[in-house]
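Morning. Coffee machine broken again, so started the prediction first thing and wrote up yesterday's gels while waiting. Chain of 166 residues, entered below exactly as on the submission form.
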Amino acid sequence: MTTEQPADVVERRRDPKRSLSIRATVPVARLTEAQGEQLASLISHLRASGVAPAGAPFVRYHTFGDDETDLETGIPVGDDADGTDRIAVTELPGGTAVSTWHLGAHDRLAEAYARLEAWLGEHRRTPAGPAWEVYTWIDPTEPLDPSAWPSPTEWSTEIVQPVRPA
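Came back before lunch.
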């Protein structure tokens, strides 16, 4: 499932993506655990509902502080998906966005965010909402099983940042 991707920043127009997601404010110390719990709940809900995902899972940080973060974990879906009291029908925004890829474990993910920040500064552009990470190495059609994932050195994660028009 992993493919080599360029480390360059690319600007393009994106279509909105209907999604199911769980959003919560969580302590930074529980970030990985919370993401795993949310993703497992979403995958279980899709399987129980008989709904196929329409893309790779994503995580969007609406705010990120020193102690806690407003975290949204989601999976793109078609029009046939419904939410629950905890799982909301949401949308990844369409419009102009810049993106870049990070290859490898997430301990160096900040390098990809730094590339996006440098691009924004160089092109005098501003964000148009929170960025999100797309985890192409997680198969949302399968139960969540980190032991079945590829080695972290093979993870391919896209970071997408919506931007205001030039």
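The longest strand covers residues 17-27. Going to sketch it on the whiteboard this afternoon.
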